[in-house]
Specification:
333 residues; alpha+beta; 2 domains; 6-stranded antiparallel beta sheet; 4 helices
Amino acid sequence: MGLGPWRTAVVVMAGTVLGLTGCDGNSTAPDDLRFGQVGQIQVRVTSPVLGGVGGLEETLVWRSDGPWVLAERLGYGDELGSETVRRPDLNPGDLAAEYGSLVQQLTETPGLRLFGPETPQDLVPTCLPERTRIEVVIRDGPRNEEARWVRCADGTLFTATPGSAGPDPGASRVVTAAQLARSFTLGDAGRSSYFGSIPFRSVGRGGDSPARLEVPEAFLGEGPDAPTDWLAFWERHGGSGPPPPEVDWEREMVLVATAGRRTEAGDSLQITRILPIGEGTRVEMILRVPGNFCSPAGRVGWPYHIVIAPRTPSPVTFADPQVIRVPCGGSGG
């Protein structure tokens, strides 16, 4: 799928946000404690996008005392385009009982349990480029051990079905385990942050573009040469810095998102989805701003996000940014 080295960073990001359960190698697990009952479950789903020219990676980490985090990354070629992180809306402690229920099902329930000859852990298939790779890991804190299963399927964390699983009959149990973990934490009505989007890669993002665009722009070529309006924009934006990024203008386009002039420090803009719709394309964005009770410093700037994507039908329109208020001291994403 060609997602490059940034793929493994999603696991690190999810683990860092949660603070992975510490494992004490000298501790001893009670005889009646199920494997993973104290520890965490990690589900990692890597799916091709647009025939494999890009990819989506979703990593769900759920800790036995309740907290969970879902980190999603969308990439194009070998480069990252966008990433999002989701956490529980409810008190994470309320999910501890659900975690224990899931561990019980995965260790004891006939037809679901992962520990047994039906689902060997040493079977690690190489999934075809058009298929999704699903990995389920159960980590046991007191024992300082982990169990891991890898299988192939179709779809994403939110859409993969046991019927598409392979290569062995037991693969359906691995996909079911992933779906149960997602259902217990995010519910059955959720969907990926990048649902329906084509892949894209980010080539620049910041809080103040010298080009000072007031409205977003889409740059599309009419042949192999770069459009003159794109070169003019880059000269204003980049100045004497690096040359413009390489673009295959016959197959790709450049999108520049902006929220116009902003007057507070901490505002951050991010393209989240590029959606071919009917005869055109809609670009969706998120504008993160300091929360209501923060006291940001006054600063004039033009937040921006520049991405390269496979060319889609014209016209390309930009939806109004979705405004998200970030708690004081929180990450702007």
